[in-house]
Amino acid sequence: MLQKLKIRQQDKKGFTIIEVMIVLAIAGLIMLIVFLAVPALQRTARNTQRKNDASAVAAAVANYIDDNGGTLPTGVGWDGVNKDMLVVGTLGSTYTSPNWSQNTETAKLGFYTVGSTGATLYAIGGPSGQNIFIQNVVAITTPTLVAPSTAPTGATINNLSMVIDTGETCNDANNMGGAVSARTAAIFYVTETSSGDGSLQCVEQ
Questions:
Q1: What strand order describes the sheet that includes 105-108?
Q2: pLDDT of amino acid 53
Q3: CA gyration radius for the chain?
Q4: What is the strand order of the sheet 196-204 is part of?
Q5: Does residue 128 contact residue 174 with C-beta atoms inside 8 Å?
Q6: Residue 71: what are its φ and ψ, rounded to 5°?
Q7: Burial grade of 133 (CB within 10 A; 0-12, 13-18, 19 or more)
Q8: Phi-psi category of residue 135: left, alpha or beta, with phi > 0 → left and psi -120 to 50 → alpha
Q9: Cα–Cα distance measured from residue 127 to residue 113, given in angstroms and rounded to the nearest whole number
Q10: How much helix, strand and coil, in percent to the nearest 5, is found in the chain?
């Protein structure tokens, strides 16, 4: 009887300090892996959305060229309602409002946003600073990279902006300007890395 009581008392013995430390170490390791993996997954998702947006804009530009006898668009803007809908077209007599003179095409955006300041030949600023620019390659060459903290322009680009270069193609490396062509456009965007900007990417319509 005494022996059975001792066995029961031994069965009630708790975890040792070493066992608790091992469990805590494993839990800490799992939390560290998750902490490191989540930001990387988020960056990958944003980069994928950037690429999808550039492809959508390229398709809109291609449709516009086909529907307007080979004419390249000269303006970008919004539809007056949706911040995620880019309008691609040819502007009329002014550059301060969406005064479209021909048919337009639209591109549904996921990462970039379109501002409500009206269409211009250059910047359309979104509420989060994600700017979309359109320019003629004859006037301004391939955009160059600037830091995310620097406001982009038609000639510069960061991971918060996109540049549509009309009259240009992508090169073989698919990351910078190629040949000049009157019926094409190159859409430039920048990937994101853990330290900021990645590389310049190009999608051709």
A1: 75-78, 85-89, 105-108
A2: 94
A3: 27
A4: 131-136, 161-170, 177-193, 196-204
A5: no
A6: -75, 135
A7: buried
A8: beta
A9: 7
A10: 30, 30, 40
> Domain-by-domain residue ranges, the chain?
45-204
In residues, how long is the chain?
A: 205
Per residue in 90-140, pLDDT tens? Answer: 765 444 445 566 678 889 988 887 754 443 333 344 444 567 888 876 655
Contact 179, 167 (CB under 8 A): no
Phi-psi region of 167 (alpha: psi -120 to 50; beta: other; left: phi over 0): left
DSSP tag of 71: P
| Of 100, 98, 109, 114, residue with least CA distance to 67 | 100
Question: Which residue intervals of the chain are DSSP H helices?
Answer: 2-11, 17-67
- Looking at every residue in the chain, the average pLDDT score rounds to 76
